[in-house]
């Protein structure tokens, strides 16, 4: 199974989601042995690679945004996400970050290592927290300022060096909307390959403060309660979408606008 990426796009059949076979790889000038196995198993049937942004798809195929494909991929979505992260790791670690020597693949594990200074580089994972704040029968949803098409969702942010996940939750909420929390409860986690996040989701109870948005991060934040129309929440394939849907106020209506 061959995952060929062009930026954040995946090559699939134009009339479906079938992945390219060896003949398509050959047409694009890709040698199977040059593709990265998704696991440290020489016989692994799953491989991935990034190609140049000017590569055009062969007849009958198309490059489609991976994010838009997730609902169609179903059970293969997690596999495609891993393939993207592995391909991105190889693409961005061709040279040692210490001495600039070309990196080599380890023969013992999924790792790139420098033959000159010995630096080891493993696939990157960036932990990020997500929290849905509840106040009685109301929930707080926000739109992020950096994305023109952003949906209303739970608050989220990356964990900083030296922080615990819980500390990151309290800090991000204080920074982005000026609120205090209590009763932090774990909801679930999900690998999110944009480009290499691990989303760790919580619910929490409101414990004080007035909503005051950090304008460079949040364009809007609102409390939604029973019977309210809630616009444009994330897709159900994402942990954000599941988190919001699992905590909708009674009678709340999801509305696409």
From TrEMBL:
InterPro entries listed in its UniProt record: NAD-cap_RNA_hydrolase_NudC, NudC-like_C, NUDIX_hydrolase-like_dom_sf, NUDIX_hydrolase_CS, NUDIX_hydrolase_dom, Znr_NADH_PPase
What's one GO BP annotation on this UniProt entry?
NAD+ catabolic process
Question: What are its GO cellular component terms?
Answer: cytosol
Q: What are the protein's GO molecular function terms?
A: metal ion binding; NADH pyrophosphatase activity
Q: What is this enzyme's class at the first EC digit?
A: hydrolase
Enumerate the catalysed reactions. Answer: a 5'-end NAD(+)-phospho-ribonucleoside in mRNA + H2O = a 5'-end phospho-adenosine-phospho-ribonucleoside in mRNA + beta-nicotinamide D-ribonucleotide + 2 H(+)
Q: Which residues form the Nudix hydrolase domain?
A: 123-249
Q: Name one Pfam family in it.
A: Zn_ribbon_NUD
Q: What is its EC number?
A: 3.6.1.22
Q: Which Gene3D superfamilies match?
A: 3.90.79.20, Nucleoside Triphosphate Pyrophosphohydrolase (3.90.79.10)
The cofactors required by this protein are:
Mg(2+); Zn(2+)
Supply the alphabetized keyword list: Hydrolase, Magnesium, Metal-binding, NAD
* NCBIfam families associated with the record: PRK00241.1
Task: Report the sequence similarity comment from the record.
Answer: Belongs to the Nudix hydrolase family. NudC subfamily.
Name of the molecule in the record: NAD(+) diphosphatase
UniProt organism field: Bordetella pseudohinzii
The lineage, from the top, is: Bacteria, Pseudomonadati, Pseudomonadota, Betaproteobacteria, Burkholderiales
């Amino acid at each position: 199974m061959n995952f060929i990426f062009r930026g954040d796009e995946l090559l699939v059949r134009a009339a479906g989601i079938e992945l390219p076979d060896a003949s398509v790889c050959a047409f694009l000038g890709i040698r199977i042995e040059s593709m990265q196995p998704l696991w440290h198993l020489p016989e692994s049937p799953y491989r991935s690679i990034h190609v140049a942004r000017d590569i055009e798809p062969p007849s009958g195929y198309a490059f489609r945004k991976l994010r838009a494909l997730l609902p169609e991929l179903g059970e293969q979505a997690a596999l495609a996400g891993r393939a993207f992260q592995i391909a991105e790791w190889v693409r961005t670690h061709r040279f040692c970050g210490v001495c600039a020597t070309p990196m080599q693949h380890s023969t013992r594990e999924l790792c790139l290592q420098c033959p000159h200074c010995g630096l080891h580089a493993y696939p990157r994972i960036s932990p990020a927290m997500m929290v849905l704040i509840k106040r009685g029968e109301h929930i707080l949803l926000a739109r992020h300022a950096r994305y023109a098409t952003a949906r209303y969702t739970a608050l989220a942010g990356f964990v900083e060096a030296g922080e615990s996940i819980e500390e990151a939750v309290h800090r991000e909420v204080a920074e982005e909307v000026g609120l205090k929390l209590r009763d932090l409860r774990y909801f679930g986690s999900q690998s999110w390959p944009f480009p290499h996040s691990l989303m760790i989701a919580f619910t929490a109870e409101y414990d004080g403060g007035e909503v005051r948005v950090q304008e460079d991060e949040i364009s809007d934040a609102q409390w939604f309660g029973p019977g309210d129309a809630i616009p444009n929440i994330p897709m159900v394939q994402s942990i954000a979408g599941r988190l919001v849907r699992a905590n909708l106020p009674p009678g709340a209506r999801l509305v696409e606008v």
